[in-house]
Amino acid sequence: MKMQPVLVGAFEAKTKLGKLLERVGRGDSFIITKHDQPVARLVAYRDDRSSRRKDAAAEMRALRAKYKLKGAGIRELRDEGRA
């Protein structure tokens, strides 16, 4: 379950950056505001390769749900047209 980002003023973010970074490492996220307007988001670093793998896996699951084999096995489909 994802939590909503917590709003933090720029001054507080500057003075408590170390503690905010510890919390981000545990999964929290923050929106830093200046004069009550959001200006930045403080979230955990996510390796780009890892996020691409997760996105690719989600796309494959979506395709699997969209297309059904209707009783045909994967080998039958692979060998279809080979002769």
Describe the structure.
This protein has 4 helices and 3 strands, in the order βααββαα. By secondary structure, it is α+β, with helices and mostly antiparallel strands. Strands 1-2-3 form a 3-stranded mixed sheet. The termini are far apart. It has 2 domains: 37 residues; 32 residues. The model has no long low-confidence stretch (mean pLDDT 88).
The whole-number mean of residue pLDDT values reads 88
Strand order of the largest sheet: 1-2-3
User: Care to count the β-strands?
Assistant: 3
* Through-space gap between termini: 51 Å
Number of helices: 4
Which segments are poorly predicted (pLDDT under 50) over 5 or more consecutive residues?
none
Largest sheet, if any? 3 strands, mixed
Coarse morphology? rod-shaped
Order of helices and strands: EHHEEHH
DSSP strand content: 15-25%
Helical percent range?
40-55%
Number of domains: 2
Rg for CA atoms: 23 Å
Structural class: alpha+beta
Outline of this structure?
Helix content is 48%, strand content 18%. It is an alpha+beta fold and 83 residues long.
List the helices and strands and how they pair.
Layout: E1 6-9, H1 10-15, H2 17-25, E2 30-34, E3 37-42, H3 48-66, H4 74-79
Parallel strand pairs: 1-2
Antiparallel strand pairs: 2-3
Defining key terms:
alpha+beta; 4 helices; 48% helix; 18% strand; rod-shaped
